[in-house]
């Protein structure tokens, strides 16, 4: 079976497993399945890229570490570790593509799309931040939350710039992966603080898709030309 098809199958099965866990089990069990998901997809990335994409592999490890701290998210110190390590994971992805992030040359349609994406992400972040601020009393934790949000928005912008400059499947996969992870974060916090279990289905689906996209990107990044006008 081709790697692409195998990764698609694994992603599909993991989404089903996560949905079943959220439906039938409690929040703590669903968090363990989240850990299983990032472990499997991180292993796929390591196998696909033959351990060559070290920054991406470090990012996967940091995502895994974050999910362990998510098990104790109700404790403030775990929140500190979660936001700090999750921000580092995004920065390592940024290190991986930094040499190809340049000033984008958007056409009108791309400008509209780019502005819409940033505005939507910023608005969602603002809404979650307003909820978070009401629930959290520690100033340091609130500051770290805002830093994490800014890094997330910056990562989406960087992925969009990478897409514009590289123009191939790898750049599209990376952008959609980062966007999925960013939206997953926002939805997860919203679901947690407003206690709406149904939102976890969308959050987990986007999370698994985002991680699978990173695994797929690790293979495409090395094998595709920088400019590929037709894909």
Offer a concise description of the structure.
With 231 residues, this protein is mostly helical. It has eight helices and no strands. Helix 1 (3-24) packs antiparallel against helix 8 and helix 2 packs parallel to helix 8 (199-223).
Write the SSE topology.
Elements: H1 3-24, H2 27-49, H3 54-70, H4 76-97, H5 108-135, H6 139-166, H7 169-194, H8 199-223
Helix pairs in contact: 1-2, 1-8, 2-3, 2-8, 3-4, 4-6, 5-6, 5-7, 6-7, 7-8
Characteristics of this structure?
Lysoplasmalogenase family protein, mainly alpha, membrane, 231 residues, disordered C terminus, 8 helices, 83% helix
Describe it.
The protein has 231 residues and is mainly alpha-helical. The protein has 8 helices and no strands. The protein has helices spanning 3-24, 27-49, 54-70, 76-97, 108-135, 139-166, 169-194, 199-223. 37% of the residues are buried. The model is unreliable at 225-231 (pLDDT under 50).
Main beta sheet strand tally, sense and closure: none
Number of helices: 8
Mean pLDDT: 83
Distance between the termini: 22 Å
State the helical fraction: over 70%
